Amino acid sequence: MEEKHKIDIALFRYSVIHDFVSGIKLDHGEKERLLKEKCDRKWLIPHSDKTSVSRGTIQRWIKLYQKTGNNLESLYPRTRKDLGKHRSLDEETCLGLIRLREEMPDVSVPFIIEAIKKRDVVPQNTYLPLSTVYRFFHQHNLMRKHTMVKDRRKFEAEMPNDIWQSDVMHGPKLIAGDKTRKTYLIAFIDDHSRLIPYGQFYTSENVLSFMHAFEQALLRRGLPRKLYVDNGSAYRSRQLMHTAACLGIALIRAKPYSPEGKGKIERVFKTIRSQFIPGFTGKSLEDINQAFERWLTDEYHARKHSSTGQSPISRFIDNIECIRSTPQNLRDHFRKVARRRVNKDRSVILDRILYEAPVKLIGKQVELLYHEDERDSVEIRYKNKSYGMLVQIDIHVNCRVKRDKNNNIAISSKNIAPESGQIWGVS
User: Residue 208 half-sphere exposure, CB side, CA atoms within 13 Å?
Assistant: First the structure.
């Protein structure tokens, strides 16, 4: 399996278990409720046709993650020990499963498995994998689908920064540079206080714009425990998933075509369209961002909210002691991660730029961490250990380099003999 696929799967698994490993204490009842909720829901699982995750699987992922000191690599998929062997159910077991399913069409598959063992249809020590039974029921059209009325309930986070919602609003056409361009407001709202941690108009709603807005929001208001977003491409980026996982932020995506899940941010956008946009008289991107920041500070954050009875800023700071502060190296968490193999000549290529890696990493699959706008500062890592910053290769200098028997280079500005193992001088 490719490294990229392994990372996708590991990030998905973290998104499933984040409630149990984020450091928030949960009582037994809360843990059981969360487990049931996650087992019952439908998931979009990377590189798999499956849509559900079993209780045992979730518990196994939690143990693996905690056992390795919260190492994301512990959630990488592993090769099956019985790969190549056919796993199937015998005829007696199949008939027993069918009979029980017909008797109890509305019960869960784990309940069916327990029931078949209790009735002595199969020996007590018989291993019945949940995935195998699910697959058997699907193949025989025994998974009943029921139309249910959705139970929608009004909710509010208990504390500030428990949950942030984020979305994009289409803004007016403005002058950006030397062109008139469409604008997009990327904003966040704190579910508890209705405070807007950050909002800015951009000329694009891509990953780069969203990550900039996200970083600014964290710098100003601290770390949320959960971030609730939709299914747009910017929110599905590997960079966002990696950043959120490293900062201990649970990334939750709204169900497709369910805008009611983001009701609070949608309500704020309605307020912005009716109260801010009509009064804006500027013409450029810079004008609208300056005006929007003033409007947030002077009006929106200072005005009493109709739902809470408090101003957003007052409600936010009432429990400010509960807010997680941002780490000093926050910007490092917003670096992109690229995976490359170091060539035999020590070179590594990143976006057509040639870098030189340490000798000991030749042939190794390494991670390159960098900012989009800072290609002079590219960190190289191997197995979670940093090997410092890469240096761009000057191929003209390299053609004059001769190494000694220990592979060392000594740089000199003097004319030196070729056999010295130093950079050759130029007469």
Answer: 6
3-state helix, strand, coil in the chain (%, to 5): 40, 20, 40
Residue 105 · residue 144 · CB < 8 Å: yes
CATH number of 163-322: 3.30.420.10
Domain chopping of the chain, boundaries = 3-75, 91-139, 163-322, 335-393
Query: How far, in Å, CA of 347 to CA of 367, rounded?
Result: 14
Token couple for 223 = 């770390």
Quick one: which of 335, 373, 375, 334 has its CA closest to 216?
334
Pairing of strands 226-229, 163-176: parallel
What is the block-wise mean pLDDT of the chain (427 residues), using blocks of 10 residues?
79 89 81 89 83 90 86 79 54 79 81 80 73 83 59 68 93 91 95 95 93 95 92 82 89 67 86 93 94 96 90 92 89 89 91 90 92 86 90 67 50 38 35
Cβ 421 vs Cβ 402: under 8 Å: yes
Q: Which of 315, 305, 228 is nearest to 271 (CA)?
A: 305
Backbone angles phi, psi at 43, to 5 degrees: -115, 150
Which helix (H) or strand (E) covers residue 321, if one does? none
**Cα–Cα distance list, 137 to 92, 122, 141 (Å):** 15, 17, 6
Answer yes or no: are the C-beta atoms of 239 and 207 closer than 8 Å.
yes
Residue whose C-alpha is closest to residue 167's, from 197, 187, 192:
187
